[in-house]
Amino acid sequence: MNTVFFYLSKILWTLLSPASFLFLLLIAGIALLFLNKIHAARILLGSAAVLMTLVTFLPLGKWLVTPLEAHFPANPTLPESIDGIIMLGGAIDPVNSYIWDQPQLGSAADRYTAFIALARTYPDARLVFTGGSGSIIDQEFREADIALYFLESMGIERRRLEVERDARNTFENAVNSEALINPTVNEQWVLITSAAHMPRSVGTFCKQGWPVIPYPVDHESSPGRQIRIQFDFAGNLDSFNTHIREWLGLLVYYFIGRTDQILPDGCL
Fold first, then answer.
1. Is 114 inside any structural domain?
2. Residue 193, Ramachandran bin (φ over 0: left; ψ between -120 and 50: alpha; else beta)
3. Fewer Cβ close by (within 10 Å): the C or N end of the chain?
4. What is the tens place of the pLDDT at every residue in 56-90?
């Protein structure tokens, strides 16, 4: 069932994402012009033009991500002693890392820097990385393998690292990590992932009966600077795509029972 959900979610998102919707709207409008359906073509092409204008000038993605990133505080006060630190994958491009034979970090590299910093702050904590491949066609390239090499090169001892390399999404991050670690009730674990992704991650870990301390990183929003006009169609569309996907992920996880709260404050 998990595999069916994984493939279905990837296929549906490819077809229904805002970028795909705009593309299909334009193609349909042009097709109607060739069919001499002028009125219908004007509606579709006019709608596409309005949407593209809104995306070009307004930071819609930033507006979407702000409440997600503000849900948990940045730089939370941590206990003097913790049992372990978990980092979710998503910051390394595994395919290009294999092609170029060196780790290719993306925009979420803050996950790694925070993980390394906390690993040094808590030398006795267990260190867990979870993340395989979120691609349908490139399952042989796993981020965990690159992460292991990268973390060792940054001075983290191999004996401290516990790696889960099969997770394809947030749900599998939580389930597979819980099976690997088998945490006890009173243990304190810190969870590191991007701030926008933290609400879904916390809810999913809580659903597995594993309370975690959220340590959000990789913030994109700029509170206090949300009302502004900018000319950046490509950047705004990419941001809108990314963050509407996160909201949809939250809703889907809630309705199929993978989390008990859409925006969890912690475990119930």
1. yes
2. beta
3. N
4. 999 999 999 999 999 999 999 999 999 999 999 99
